[in-house]
Amino acid sequence: MAILAGIAGYLIIRAGLLPIPETLGEFVVATALVAGLFSIFEARAGWCIVRAFGFRTKF
Predict the structure, then answer these.
(1) Structure confidence by residue, pLDDT tens digits, 25-42
(2) What per-residue confidence (pLDDT) applies to 2?
(3) CA 4 to chain CA centroid, nearest Å
């Protein structure tokens, strides 16, 4: 899922398919890229932000 978020952000940048104002579009793309990169970091580090906040998870 993280890789897909990063790829989606990149494709949106390259294609210029943003029917919304430019600054908002840049924010959406940046958010998708950062979320994807952060998810990749979590997976590689074996760390989970949800657990860091004190929630119990099944895994």
Answers:
(1) 778 778 878 888 888 888
(2) 67
(3) 9
**pLDDT value for 16:** 66
- Torsional class of 21: left (φ above 0), alpha (ψ -120 to 50), beta (otherwise): beta
The encoded tokens of residue 4 equal 């897909």
- C-alpha atoms less than 13 angstroms from C-alpha of 54 in its C-beta half-sphere: 0
Query: For position 37, what pLDDT does the model report?
Result: 84
51 to 12, 31, 38, 42, 46: CA distances (angstroms): 31, 22, 15, 11, 11
**From the CB of residue 33, how many other CB atoms can be counted at a distance below 10 Å?**
18
Domain positions in the chain? 2-52
Residue 54 φ/ψ region, left for φ over 0, alpha for ψ in the -120 to 50 degree band, beta for the rest: left
